[in-house]
Amino acid sequence: SARAAKTGKFVRMAWQDRFSRPSVEELRNDLHGPRRQAFDALIAGFRELGQLTEFRIWHGDCWRWTIEFRSPGSIEPLAAIIPCPTDLQLAMPLSREFARSLAVNRLKRSVRDGLELAQEPFDTHWCVWSIDSAGLVDDLLDLVELKQQHLIRRAV
Question: What's the pTM value of the predicted model, to 2 decimals?
Fold first, then answer.
């Protein structure tokens, strides 16, 4: 980068620097074009859901810095944005109960594809979607909202 050339120091992208907790803005700055627009739409959408707490959490060499959104009192995140500059992703833990409650055939193929990772035979309950444009964001935020409503109904 230009900054590294001037100082002679190696400058790591905010997303990759495990020793320095980045701000949301610093993570955003590593994204460009359609990924930045999709990131902005995701952040805005989560913030509009209300009653969520935002955390920046290091997830190791795979996901690195993520932005997690949690409901009050929840141990597990509602969802997490993985702001990888080359592959912006949304990850969401999915209970089998919530997965069974979904009308999967009504969901768009791009949404169903991410859901499959949390189903048998895979050994995880996390769904992951790569987001290369803002087009998928609304569908995913709708799914997150459905999950949030499901969790609220279970808590009552």
Answer: 0.88
CB atoms within 10 A of CB 137: 21
Distance separating alpha carbons of residues 81 and 68, to the nearest angstrom = 6
Mention every residue, 6+ apart, whose C-beta is less than 8 A from residue 107. Answer: 115, 139, 143
Note whether 138 and 148 are within 8 A (CB).
Answer: no
**Residues 6 or more apart whose Cβ sits within 8 Å of residue 29:** 14
Residue 4, pLDDT > 80, answer no
Nearest to 15, CA basis, from 79, 114, 81:
81
Report how far apart, in Å, the C-alpha atoms of 8 and of each of 13, 14, 20, 32 are: 16, 18, 20, 25
3-state SS assignment for residue 50: coil
